[in-house]
Design brief:
The chain is an all-beta fold. The chain has one domain (1-64). The protein has no helices and four strands. It has a two-stranded antiparallel sheet with strand order 1-4. It has a two-stranded antiparallel ribbon with strand order 2-3. β2 and β3 form a beta hairpin. It is rod-shaped and about 70 Å long. It starts with a strand and ends in a 17-residue tail after the last strand.
């Protein structure tokens, strides 16, 4: 992806999903809690930053 920057984020065991109620089995009491995902993550694709962003970011590539 020329001119693009890919940013990825991942969290392992313990990522919480939406609250849910489980009603499995005859004669069992319902249980309510968060569902748990073994892994959850995001991916973002953004334009590459350019050098010399008005002094906001120090340029380290030697272009100046």
């Amino acid at each position: 992806m020329p001119g693009k920057l890919v940013i990825a984020s991942q969290k392992g065991v313990g990522s919480l999903g939406a609250p849910t109620t489980q009603l499995h089995g005859l004669g069992t009491m319902p249980g309510t809690g968060h569902s748990v995902y073994s892994s959850i993550g995001t991916v973002s694709v953004v334009a590459k930053p350019t050098c010399g962003l008005g002094g906001v970011v120090a340029c380290r590539c030697g272009c100046r």
